[in-house]
Amino acid sequence: MMAGYSHTSRKHPRSRSRTRSRSGPDSATLGIIGVICAVAGFFVLGIILGPAAIVCGWLAMGRRWNGARPVTALIAVVLGAIDTVLAIVLMIGMAAPGGMMF
After folding, report:
1. Digit-coded pLDDT (tens) for 60-86
2. Half-sphere exposure of 84 (CA within 13 A, CB side)
3. Where, by residue number, does the polypeptide cross the bilayer (predicted)?
């Protein structure tokens, strides 16, 4: 029998660092980047920075909607969603006949 090639009782994959969720500084950094994207999106390129803020916030939450959420990640997701909706409304308003929102 060859050593090392049989089935072992290992319960975890060898590369544990790739399978765990983001935590600590990684999560905090993504949340802050998401908030910065969302705030900047209110002034320029909201249609691009809004979804970027949502994605950064979602990744900072560990790609889960349940459980404990970092505050910055939740703020990034909410502001990113508001930013995206406002950008879409503004684009629709500018495409209307007359080209004015009001």
Report:
1. 888 776 777 778 899 999 999 999 999
2. 14
3. 28-61, 73-96
